[in-house]
Structure formats: structure tokens, C-alpha cells
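Operator note (shift B, R.M.): manual run for Pentatricopeptide repeat-containing protein MRL1, chloroplastic requested after the automated queue skipped it. Running by hand, logging everything below so the morning shift can see what happened. Input copied straight from the record, untouched. If output looks odd, do not overwrite the archive copy; leave it for review.
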Amino acid sequence: MCLRRFEKACALGEPVLSFNSGRPQIDNKWTSSALMVYRETVSAGVIPTMELLSQVLGCLQFPRDVSLRNRLIENLGVSADASRRSNLCSLIDGFGEYDSRAFSLLEEAASLGVVSCVSFKKSPVIVDTRGLQIRIAEVYLLTVLKGLKHRLAAGAKLPSMTILLPTETTQVLAPKGEKAINLAGRISQAVASMLRRLGLPYQGNESRGKIRINGLAMRRWCQPKLAGPFSGKVDELSSSQSRLGTGISLQQRKIRTGNLSLD
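Run finished. Output pasted below as returned.
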């Protein structure tokens, strides 16, 4: 019910986003109610289901509105060519897609075994979205990107990433009879669409069940070139950049151990 009410509020254009904390955050009573119930459920020792996790993440999803995304970029306090503005998503908390609290929920779900953990020990990093629901798959991938961004800030070389996607098979008429072909499923389409919104290039076709992002592309995405000087003071750029710097020591320790619990 909370998700439906939140989605209705977004559809009606009601304000659901706040910048009072210095970063974009969902400020909605239905989202607050959903988070409260979810936390009480987990605190009681109940393992959340995929469906429950997906619904709560849905309450933390930013409305997909061009004007909102422009405002998120403007809130960074940096300037860039209009053609490059989509490439600044890596600097926004939640990458302009979800409230950053969604990452904490996903990390907690990984620790409870609801979703699998991702390891950076091997290259390419494998992100398997098969068997996940759309919102979980999106936040799952975003959480991995957040971890890779932290590794880059700690001085590590970024590996390439392979994203495994679910496909659907259908029969089509061919000159020699029916032929089975693979189609991209809803999850695959959603993941590919999100990558395009983020301005993060990938190789391959989602209908083949696998796409790839190379390390150089991720590095350029994580460190976008700005068109001009920062419009604000250096120490007032973006809250995400500041917090990233304070967490480098912790990330370096995790890198040395080779572990990523989606943290």
C-alpha cells in the first residue's frame, strides 16, 4: 500500500524530494512508513522476501523527471556543457536514481542472504541480475558501481564488469518454419535503460543475456571532465564527494582483503 501511495504522489507531481540534509533524499510519509515497518520486520529476525525488499526500494526511487535530474546536477555546484550533463550522474548521491538509503538496504539484504554478494577478487567483476526483480537488479548494480567508485578513489585499478541478464525465448516464423529467438526481458531492458540514463556505455546486447562495461569506461564515468571551474568553493562541492574522501581508508582495507559485501 505504501508503494502505491508513493507512486501516486509521484505521478501527481507532489514534492517527494528534499535537500535539507545537503543531499537528495526522499521525504514522503509513505516512504517513512514503509521503512519503519521494514526495519521492525528485520529487527524481529524475519528474513525479508524479494517482493518485500523490492517494494521498499520502490519507495526510495527518484521520480524519472528531466527537470529533477537537472536540479540534482545543479545541486552539485559544478558546471559542465549541456551535452555532458548526463555524465555527471556519478557525482550525485544515489546516482540520481535512488535515495542512497536504498544501498544500505541492499547491503543488509546481502548480509542476510536475500541477494548474493559480489567479489572484486576476479576480473571481470560478475554481476548476476538473473532471478532478481527490477528494482532489486537496479539497486544491486548501482551498489556495485558505488563500491567500484570507492575503489578508484582509494587508488585501485578498476576491473571490467560483466552483467548477466535474463532473456526470454519466443517463436517466430522463418522461411524454413518456426525459429526460436532470444529477447531481452523486462529486467534486461530496465538495466540497459538505467545505464543509458547514467551515461555509462556498455558493449553487447541485452537480448544475448550478457553485456560488458570495460574498466576504462567506468573510470571515465566515475571521474567526468568538467567544462569549467567549480561554481562553488572546493569544500562545498557535493556531499557525496566529501563522504567519499572520508571513507577511503576503510575501502583500502576492504580492497586489501579482496572482499565486497556490497559495501
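Quick read of the result: Residues 2-257 form one domain. The first strand starts at residue 17 and ends at 18.
Leaving this for review. - R.M.
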